[in-house]
Write a structure and sequence with these properties.
67 residues; mainly beta; three-stranded antiparallel β-sheet; two-stranded antiparallel ribbon; 5 strands; 12% helix
């Protein structure tokens, strides 16, 4: 299953990962007590700063709707 993951940083900026598996979301949620999170997309390991919230949307987000 593919979807869109939204990651909210401590400074309220948002990182968006589209067309990724739900496994990535579960990987980030499992690190909820870690200050610096990381995830793997394909063969690449991505290091992230402090994330305060992770949200998962199945499928894609309709960006033309006014988000």
């Amino acid at each position: 299953m593919k979807g869109t993951a939204l990651l909210v940083d401590e400074d309220h900026t948002v990182k968006i990962f589209e067309n990724v598996g739900q496994e990535m979301y579960e990987e980030l949620v499992s690190q909820k007590h870690s200050k610096y999170k990381h995830c793997t997309i394909g063969d690449k390991k991505i290091k992230l700063g402090p994330i305060t919230k992770v949200v998962w949307y199945e499928d894609t987000v309709d960006w033309n709707y006014g988000y």
